[in-house]
Amino acid sequence: MAVRHFFLILMVVSIWAFNNVAVKWGLLELPPLFLTFMRFVIVAIVLVPFCRINRQQLPWLLLLAFTFGFMHFSLLFVGLRYTDAGTGAIVVQLGTPIAMLLAMVVLKEKLKLVQLVGIMISLSGVVVLSGSPTIPSWWVLCLLLCSATGWAVSNLIVKKSPPIKPLTMTGWIAFLAIPITGASSFVMESNQLYALQHAGWHGWFAILYSAIASSIVAYTLWYMLLKKYNVNLIMPYSLLTPVLSVLMGIMVLGDSLNSFKIIGASLVIFGTAIAVINLRNLRMHARFPRLRRR
């Protein structure tokens, strides 16, 4: 891998990790569902005018607007209001093993024994995390697990859907999720416009960072790198996201670090790594690197 691409990968996972810190800042001044709504508004304004879809793609994007736009993002933002940035990132990392289990059940994809073992290890990490004082109640953990499940289900939908360009998908999911998140905020929250008018730099930074840096910039770079390199070489780097989120939460927000979080995070990340990293493909890629296209 070219050195510049290695640093681009680190930049992408760092952007995603810091997004949890930015959201925590935003939640100091804005309600969580309204913050999600504003994120989607900005993404849609930037991308939708330049992205076209067809009738065949629309039903799949509507599904994704609910599973990815509402279930994943809205529930994540609500969950982060009651826990710290690192804990939220660790639990949501379970989206990967959950997606693998759903693919086995729904799509009849086969999982190897070592992958099942990795999934069980990662799930055991959540059991440990449930005892952490950073998760004040069982329903907060349930919100974060539902957020992870929304991400997992979205991956299955994308796999079955017709081809949609990544930025087109990002823009239209945001656009179609605006009514869902807007209505949810209207019903369950209050004084949203007042909060927006009186928001300081924390609130606006959270909206703009989450929309532009995390959604548009990071995903554009990520998909560019996936086109250049083997998926098995790129995907393991995403496991750095919860690790960096924990470290950034401690350094920037002053989050606590306890034994439950350390052991739980280690089990989740280690188990997910066992489940997703194909060591044989990595060894083959190292011995016979992908040739450059001419």
Concise account of the structure shown:
With 294 residues, the chain is mainly α. It has 14 helices and no strands. The two termini are 17 Å apart.
Structural class from helices and strands? Answer: mainly alpha
DSSP strand content: under 5%
How far apart the termini lie comes to 17 Å
Continuous helix count:
14
Residue share in helices?
over 70%
Topology pattern, helix = H, strand = E: HHHHHHHHHHHHHH
Largest sheet: none
User: What Rg do the Cα atoms give?
Assistant: 19 Å
The strand count comes to 0
Low-confidence residue ranges: 282-294
Mean pLDDT: 83
Indicate the overall shape.
globular
Describe the structure in your own words.
The protein is built from 14 helices and no strands. Helix 1 crosses helix 12 (240-253), helix 2 packs antiparallel against helix 8 and helix 4 (85-92) runs antiparallel to helix 12 (240-253). With 294 residues, the protein is mostly helical. The model is unreliable at 282-294 (pLDDT under 50). The radius of gyration is 19 Å and the shape is globular. The longest helix is centred in the C-terminal third of the chain and has 28 residues, at 201-228. The chain is 77% helix and 0% strand. 43% of the residues are buried.
